[in-house]
Every structure is written in structure tokens, then in C-alpha cells.
Amino acid sequence: MSEQYDVIVAGAGPAGAQCARDLATRGYDVVVLETESEDAFPTTSNKSTAGTFPSMITSFGVPDDVVMNFTDKVVLESPNNHYTRHHPGAVLEFADFKQWLVEDGREAGAEYRFDARVTGPVMENGQIAGVEYNGSEEVRAEITIDATGPSAPLAKALNVSELERENHAIGIEYELTGVDLNHADYGDLTDAMMLRLDHDLAPGGYSWIFHTGEDEAKVGLCYIQNDSHRQNARENFSVDDYMEYWLDRDPRFADAERKEGVQHRGSAHIQMPGDLSTDRFMAIGDTVPSIDPIWGEGIHKGMKSARAAAITVEAALDKGMTDTSAEQMSIYDRLWHRDVAPNQRRRLLMTELLYLADNDRYDRFMEDLHGMDEATMRKLNNGNPLAVADLLHFDDRALLTEFIRDKVAIDFDGFLPKPFNKRRSNASAAFEFD
Q1: Signal as a keyword (predicted)?
Q2: Which of 39, 164, 370, 409 makes the best surface tag, with the fewest CB within 10 Å?
């Protein structure tokens, strides 16, 4: 006879472990199924750059001892320019962070089963009633949560996942020692998180250097398999080839060495989610595309999606009055769109427009940022359409024409301001749209 729980969580990543931690703290009987063995955890899943901001640290009580370095600025680079914005952040030791989440959840009462590969849902009367794992074992619960990432075995089986290959991002990261963080030809990266827009290094994506202390840094790149990547990619270059190409040419790495055995690989989808829940079921974290499309920051989004799922569980199982219908579970969908990623569509469109630009436009973009006041910068980061328009120049017409041609089926209401020929700012010349 199958064991019965209040909630099953598939996957012990940041979203899954945080959800279990929240639920156990609230007194729910929760079990987490994780593919990796406990001795190895997390090895194959240790794939995040783990850059985050104080709001995540504070909201989820993350201890200082899982932080590699507290940073005080963000640096944006283009091939020949850079922009520095003072903004506090933190670079986590991702493996330690994940282990802390597991142990803290266990102390609150969550049960963990490692070496437990989820293979599919247990169905009853057309609804998920539990999970099959390791081929023949099963466990049942009132509510099941898929936090397995892009593999999404449960979400796919329930037709909740709508991940598309064309929106698939792949990345690689090394940890280096001997990095010159204050090279004369570049901005100062001491205590900084740097993102670089440069199609020569990451066509259709970006690269990064995150200072982790002393002369050490996390260094990596990623790109989306999009039109921009196909237009700018080098023939037969893999993500590894681009990484080696960068390390060989950037003088900041002239004396750098890789930490032995430390390499992170990952993938995610950068797109709007479709359904997020159904009867007795929710999908959280990277199982649905929760990563911020502009900054690539996924930990905070995943953690917030976990908390939204825990709130939904509490509403569904409140005081024994169980209601796990699709309608009740859709509370999670509403919380996701309101609290987890409220401007996701706009930010996705901004990202696609950004990656269509060429390297010369990236250099000019840095100049535009230098002329932008703090209030407009905040609006731009939130996807405000008028702030986006402030960055447009007269000679961006070709870029926008290509963008709109590719996205003609998308509803632009609220994203592109009208009319364009009335907009002017200290960061851009008049722009005419025709």
C-alpha cells in the first residue's frame, strides 16, 4: 500500500527545497524526491552562477556562511565600453546554499529521499494522485509539486509544461584564480558582478565575471538558441569553444588558472509560461520558465515561486477543508504572475530586442546608460515602455523594423509607446517610426 503525504515535491533544487522548507514549517507532511545520491548532492545539479541580491537574502533568511562574496556594484560591458551601477549583491556558494536549504527543511520536519528518480505521475480518476519513482516505487499525496527543472517529467505528462526548444538557453561556467579584476583596459570588477554583451563571445546571449573574493571569480557565458545566435554564431563552435576563445583573448585571464574539477553547466528556457497548475498539481522553479530574461537571475524567482506554491497548498488544505481542484490551485498562477514575475512579457520583449542589436549598438547602449537618471533606470529595469523608448535613436529604425516583423503576432499594447516621433530624452535623439 502506498505511503500518503500532504505534499510531494519532486526535485531538491532551490525551488523544491524552499517549498518543502516552507511547508514543513507550516506543519504539513511533505516528502522530497531527489534524483542525486545524498553523498554526491549537489554534483550534477550544481549549475548556477548563484548571483543574487539582498532582497532574496533577507526574504528567505539565507545565512552569511553560504555567501562567497558580498558585492557592491553591477558592471555592464560591451566590446569597447562599460557602465557601472552601484547596487549591493551577493555571490553564493551554490552547493552550500542547496545543502543548507535541505538541512533547514529537514530540521523543520520535511522528509528527503535521495536516489529517487521520478518517472511519472500516479493517476486516479484523471487526476494526479502521487508519483512513481525508480521505476516501480510510488508515493501518494493530496498535492504534487514538480520542481525538477526543464526535464519536467510530471508537468509534461500532465500537459502543463510548454517549454520550446527555440527558447532554450545553455551555459558553462568555470571558477578561476589569478584573475586581474582591475585591468587598466576595463572597468574595476572588485566586489562586482559583471555582465558582458558581445556577440563575438556569446552570440545571442551574454558572458559574466562574478568576483568571489581575493583574485578569484566565477567566469561563464550562455546564449539562447535564437535567431540572433544563428546570425552571429561561429561555424561549429560549441559553448565550450566560446569559453576557451574568451579565456584565450581577454587579458584579465592571462595569469588565471581553473580550479581543478570545478565546472558548472546548465540549461533553462527563456519564455513566457503557459499553464502553471492543474488539479492537485503545481510546477515551480525552472520547471516553468522562472528565470529573469534580462539579468539571468533565477534563484530569487525560483524561491518566490516556491513560496507562492506553499501559500496555495495552505489555501487548498486549510483546516482540513480540502479543495485541490484546478480552480483552487490556480491561486498559484495568479500569485506567480503578480509576485514572481509581474513584468515577464515586457522583459522578454526587451531581451529579444536587446539581442537583435549588434556590437556597435551595445557600445552606444553603454553611453546611453551613462546619461540616464536613477529614476528612469529603475523604470527601465521594470520594463517600463517609456523608459525603453528613451534608449531609442533615429537610426534604430532598422532594428525595430526587424523586431516587429519577427513579433508581428504579439500584442504590443502597453509595451511600445505611440507615437514614436513624439519621444525625446537626454539619452536619445528623436525617433520616427514609419
Answers
A1: no
A2: 409
pLDDT by residue (tens digit) across 164-210? 666 677 889 999 999 999 999 999 999 999 999 999 999 988 999 99
| Average pLDDT of the chain to the nearest whole number | 85
- Between 145 and 171, the more confident residue is 145
Residues 151 and 291 in one domain: yes
Name the percent of the chain lying above pLDDT 90: 58
Give yes or no for a contact between 340 and 305, defined as CB atoms under 8 angstroms apart.
yes
Burial annotation 218-236 (CB, 10 A radius, 16+ → b, else e): bbbbbbbbbebbeebbeee
For residue 356, give the C-alpha cell: 537583435
* Joined grid coordinates for residue 412: 504590443
What pLDDT digit, counting tens, does each position of 62-90 carry? 999 999 999 999 999 999 999 999 999 99
Report CA-CA distances (Å) from 333 to 274, 328, 330: 10, 10, 5
Number of structural domains the chain divides into: 3
**Please, which pLDDT band fits residue 405 given cuts at 50, 70 and 90?**
low
Dihedral of alpha carbons 111, 114, 118, 123, sign: negative
Other Cβ atoms less than 10 A from the Cβ of 311: the count is 16
Structure letter (DSSP) for residue 233: P
Main-chain phi, psi angles of 31, to 5 degrees: -125, 140
Q: How many CB atoms are closer than 10 A to CB 99? A: 17
CA end-to-end span of the chain:
68
- Phi-psi map region of 188: left, alpha, beta (phi>0 left; psi -120 to 50 alpha): beta
Q: Is residue 81 part of a domain?
A: no
Q: Which three cell numbers stand for residue 115?
A: 536516489
Pair 41, 145 in one domain: yes
- The set of cell numbers assigned to 191 is 566586489
pLDDT at 293: 64
Burial of 370 (0-12, 13-18, 19+ CB in 10 A): exposed
Residue-number span of the structural domain to which 401 is assigned? 371-422
Is there a single domain that holds both residue 149 and residue 40? yes
pTM of the model: 0.85
pLDDT class for 233, splitting at 50, 70, 90?
confident
